[in-house]
Structure formats: structure tokens, C-alpha cells
Amino acid sequence: MALTADKQALIWKTLNETRGKIEPSEYKNYIFGLMFYKFLSEKAQTWLDSQLRGETWASVWKQNPEKAAAFMQTKLGYVIQPGEFFSDWHAAINVDQFNITNVADALVHFNQEIQQGAKATFEGIFDDMDLASNRLGSNTQTRTKTLMDWISLIDQIELDEDADVLGDLYEYLIGMFAANSGTKAGEFYTPHQVSDIMARILTAGREELPTYSLYDPAMGSGSLLLTTASYMKNAGVRGAIKYYGQEVITTTYNLGRINLMMHGVEYNDINIHNADTLSSDWPDGVRSGVDSPRMFDAVMANPPYSLKWDNTNREDDPRFKSGIAPKSKADFAFLQHGLYHLKQDGRMAIVLPHGVLFRGAAEGRIRQELLENRHISAVIGLPEKIFTNTGIPTIIMILEKNRTTDDVLFIDASKGFEKQKNNNKLRQEDVDLIVETFLKREDVEKYAHVASFEEIKENDFNLNIPRYVDTFEEEDPVDLVAVSHELGDVNRDIAQSEADLLAMIGDLAVTDDSQPIIESAKQLLGGNHE
């Protein structure tokens, strides 16, 4: 983990000391915003040091602000004015000259000077940092003090592009605050072990491709996109990997943009939207009456489970030609959307609840058509309680558009995990076994089975895993002779104990008051042997 225990303790301590009226679920908006501004500042300073050759940024800016701004925009897509770097804020704090307006003015200037071609990536990315909120403090002085504490905190966190610092911090804060936040804190983040399984399956045999496009229609913090890209050889090459995604929650959309860029993804390789995937298809969509959807090499998703959605008037939507998912459960709608945008030789992985495997009516008809068209490649059953926001067991379904076979691999990985305090965690050996089993595509007793289409058809296209993978463990047969001998030994022990107790009672001194009690005890114990 990129964050040491000492840094975790420092973050927790500072957040508690500056909590005020801020809800735990809101902390991340300020903390991640400040982290990102520090990241952008350091990136800009590193670039300036390589370009200015001893001249200061302040002097270049003073000579011609417009030219200086265009100079930085061309390379970075954004501009940070002299005196408005994160290090300038920290320096002002050290000499007692910092005010909350230092941050407010810098963020306004940042938003005003984004390059036109980078607006989709950077515009409004700090909007969740409400610096006028009374939750930061009742007046400017207390709000300034709160911000000073946070800036001092962030200054002590090293930002390494090659480490999932933001993801680690986010996951850590989820663990610390989820119990108090009153929200589904885990909806923004997919556990790394699950992301890793999906990423390794999606990229298997394709790691050497010079270019690769990734799409997550419910991207959350973007962890699935980042993990998948990390397995591609050219992940660090500008322009080699293209990141596409949609996220309906604006705060989470901002978090996703931040997360991608803090992992070194260049702004012109990012193409994500703040939109409802099911009601607003990918913007390419239908143009001039012609359907021309954008297609991707890999699609990955961990959408909200069994979400209610507006399924009216969807009959003409080309994404849902296999059928319309019920309005009470959008699981198959997300699946169909992703499959629709998959290239003919692409691969898709999606996390879903078990219900999609066996529910009937419209979902049953969609499932049957997916199977008849050879789209479903594998169903992987995961353990329960591995997600922060739900304890239900889930599956990973692997899909392809142009398979030559119609069998389906079933993997029951529900029993391979490490039990922790409030949840379960997939161990590295569990992750490796799942991926290796998928790649080998062979039967493994009590773990995996490759089911033929005929076998699935005989089961009425029900994909419930226990129908195909028998994990039942027979109990050892009971040795009745041994049990009989044990019972005999127990009875003899009881008889000896009662005899010893009778002897002890017989030795007791008898009084008029105790006589009836002693006689009753003798009769009771003696009667057991009649």
C-alpha cells in the first residue's frame, strides 16, 4: 500500500481535528481536490524547470501574461499563475500570510485558463470544493484555519504517479468513515482484487497491442480503467491507451477525472462524460438518422445492482434489441449497453448480482438470446461481503461478440477468501486461481466446469452456478459401533460419579432439618440404578 501506517494515522487525526460540521462523505471532496491541485502544481513546476533555463515563471509571466499562459496550455492543457502554486500556499502558511482567498482566487484563475481542447477534462473539476460553506467554519477566519490544516496535511503526502495513492487514500477513508457516512460509500470504488481479475482477463493475450481503447459506462473513481490499462505494455505511452467512461454522479465524475490524471494519464487521452449511461447513450450514437456508435477494445463495469430505471419507449433503441430489462432491475440494461459498444474482437467483463443468472420473464429471454448468439463466455461466482456497499454475493460475467464456440465456463470461487472484521477479501492466490482457470478453460473438480450449449439448454438457459459446479462435500460416515462403545463408556462414568456422590452423602452429619433432604437425594441417585 502506498500510504504508510504513519501517514494513515496523520490523515485520520487531522480529519478528526478539523471535522467541524462536515459530514464524513464530504471530506473526500476537499482532500482529493487539494491533493489534485498539488499534483498539477508539481507537474507544472517540473515542466517549467525543464523549459525556463534559470528564468523565473514570475518574470516570464510579467513580460507577457497571454503568451506565457498559451505556452503552458500547449503542453499541459491548464495554467497555474505565479504565486498560485500549492507550494506558494504552504509557504504563505509558514509566514502567517495565508488566507482562504489564496485558494479561491487560484481555482477561479485555473478554470478561466483551461485550453479549449482540454475543457472536457479539466473544467469544473474543483467545483466540489465549496470554500464558502459554513461546514468549513462559521466565518472566514475559521474556514481559513480548516484549509490551512488540510494543506499542511496534503503537503506531507508524497504523490507518486506510479502508485495508486489516490485509490489507496480513498479506500482507506471508506474503511474509516463508511460506518458513519450514512451513504453507500463503496459505490465509487471497486476493490483492487476484483479489478485485477477483470483486467487480467480482458487483456490476456493482448498486452502487446500498440493501441487499446477502454470503456467503463459506470466508471466511479476510474479504478477499473486504470487497473486494466496497467497490464498493457504501452500504458505509459502518450496516445497508446484511450480512456472512455460515463458517470452520472457529478462528484464521482470529478473524482474519476482526478484519479486518472493523478495516475499519469494525459488529458488528451481521457474522454469521459457526466451523464446517465442508460438514458444518454455514448455521444457518438445516432447522427443524421444513422447509427454510428463508438466501439471499444475492452468494456468493463461494476454498475449499481438492480437499479430502477426508465425503460419506457426503448423498443427502437439499438442497444436493447435482445429485449428490455424490467424497470425495477437495470442489470441487463447495463450489460446490453456495454456489449453494444464492444468491438467484434473485443472482450467485456461486468460485475452483477446472481439474479441475472436465473430470473425469468424479460431477463430470461435476454439471457437466452445472449447464449444463443454465443456472447457469454464465462460466469465467475465471487465470495459474499467483498464490496464495501453490499454484502450480497456477486458474479463477474465475461462476454464477447464474435465467439466461435457456444459453451460457457462456470467458476465457483465463492469459498476462496480471507475473512476480515467486517468483510471478506480475495487473497492473491484466489485471484491467480480464478484467472488461471479462465485461461485454461478446463473442468476442475468442485471449482469449475465447461458447460456445453446442450447442457445449458436442458437447464432452460438457467445459469445458476450450482447447476453446473457441484461443490457439495459429503460428511464422513458415522461409525455406529464406535458411537455405541462411546455411549457405554459415558454411562459407566455417570454411574461411577453417582456412586461416589452417594458415598459422600452417606458420610454427611445428619440433623433433624437435613434428614429429609438427604433421604430424597439418596432415593433420586439410587433410583437411577434400579
Secondary structure topology:
Elements lengths: L4 H13 L6 H28 L5 H7 L1 H12 L9 H9 L5 H13 L6 H4 L17 H16 L9 H17 L10 H12 L8 E5 L6 H7 L11 E6 L3 H13 L7 E4 L12 E2 L2 E2 L4 E6 L29 H10 L1 E12 L7 H12 L3 E6 L12 E6 L8 E5 L5 E2 L4 E2 L2 H13 L7 E4 L1 H6 L21 H27 L8 H13 L3
Parallel strand pairs: 1-2, 1-6, 2-3, 6-7, 8-10
Antiparallel strand pairs: 4-5, 7-9, 8-9, 10-13, 11-12
Structure characterization notes:
Helices cover about 45% and strands about 10% of the residues. It is α/β, with parallel strands linked by helices. Strands 3-2-1-6-7-9-8-10-13 form a nine-stranded mixed beta sheet, with helices on both faces. It has a two-stranded antiparallel sheet with strand order 4-5. Strand 11 and strand 12 form a beta hairpin. Helix 10 packs parallel to helix 15. The longest helix is centred in the N-terminal third of the chain and has 28 residues. The radius of gyration is 32 Å and the shape is extended.
Low-confidence stretches: none
> Helical residue percent?
40-55%
Strand runs, count: 13
From the alpha-carbon coordinates, what is the Rg to the nearest angstrom? 32 Å
User: Rough shape?
Assistant: extended
Distance between the termini: 72 Å
Q: Which strand order does the major sheet show?
A: 3-2-1-6-7-9-8-10-13
How large is the share of residues in beta strands? 5-15%
Q: Structural class of the helices, strands and pairings?
A: alpha/beta
Largest sheet: 9 strands, mixed
**H/I helix tally:** 18
Mean pLDDT across residues? 87
Keywords: Methyltransferase, Restriction system, S-adenosyl-L-methionine, Transferase
InterPro entries: D12N6_MeTrfase_N, DNA_Adenine_Mtase, DNA_methylase_A-5, Restrct_endonuc_T1M, SAM-dependent_MTases_sf, T1MK-like_N_sf
Enzyme class: transferase
Catalytic activity: a 2'-deoxyadenosine in DNA + S-adenosyl-L-methionine = an N(6)-methyl-2'-deoxyadenosine in DNA + S-adenosyl-L-homocysteine + H(+)
